[in-house]
Design a protein that fits this description.
CATH class of the largest domain: Mainly Beta
Number of strands: 8
Distance between the termini: 87 Å
InterPro entries: Ig-like_dom, Ig-like_dom_sf
Order of helices and strands: HHHEEEEEEEEH
Largest sheet: 4 strands, antiparallel
Strand content: 25-35%
Protein name: Ig-like domain-containing protein
Radius of gyration: 26 Å
Organism: Champsocephalus esox
Length: 177
């Protein structure tokens, strides 16, 4: 328990500050100690960001998730290349008892135009945890973007042309009856 006290900042707003300075066995009961010890931890849960790097391609959107467990003041924020993200972040908070919370945070980023390092940072009054991933474009992927985009446009135009042809045929068949 003394490691917990030494490594965590003192939270003056909770009962933790009055009981955490004592390392003797004369504290209240075993159950409150386990609650305090669990509350002190800020942990990111799998899948960590490094587990989510599935090969990002240029001009394609992607999604990153971050799950964290900690005390009720737990907050998650995202960084890209060391800077706060401008992208809107989605978050869901699920209370687990009176003092713990599970926070699920995710972001959907647009097309990746250059290599980037993403960080998910979970912070609370009792500590923090960080997960990071380096996303790199596939070699040669930048050159294939114009031809891939052109092929997508061709496909869309062909599909549109076929749809118009079917509508014209349907219209003509209605006109004849």
């Amino acid at each position: 328990m003394s490691l917990f006290c030494a490594s965590s900042p003192v939270d003056t707003s909770s009962s933790l500050s009055s009981s955490s300075s004592s390392s003797s066995s004369t504290s209240s009961s075993t159950k409150p100690h386990s609650v305090e010890a669990r509350e002190a931890e800020v942990r990111l849960l799998p899948p960590l960001l490094k587990d989510q790097a599935w090969g990002v391609h240029a001009q394609e959107a992607f999604l990153l998730f971050c799950l964290a467990l900690g005390p009720s003041d737990l907050q998650i924020h995202w960084l890209i290349n060391g800077h706060m993200l401008d992208t809107p972040i989605m978050e869901h908070r699920l209370p687990l008892g009176q003092k713990e919370i599970l926070v699920s945070s995710w972001l959907r980023e647009g097309a990746l135009i250059k290599d980037a390092r993403y960080h998910c940072v979970a912070e609370a009054s009792t500590g923090s945890d960080t997960s990071e991933v380096d996303l790199r474009l596939t070699i040669g992927d930048e050159e294939s973007v114009p031809s891939r985009d052109l092929n997508q446009w061709r496909g869309a135009l062909t599909e549109h042309e076929q749809l118009l042809k079917r509508w014209a045929e349907a219209w003509e068949s209605c006109d004849g009856h």
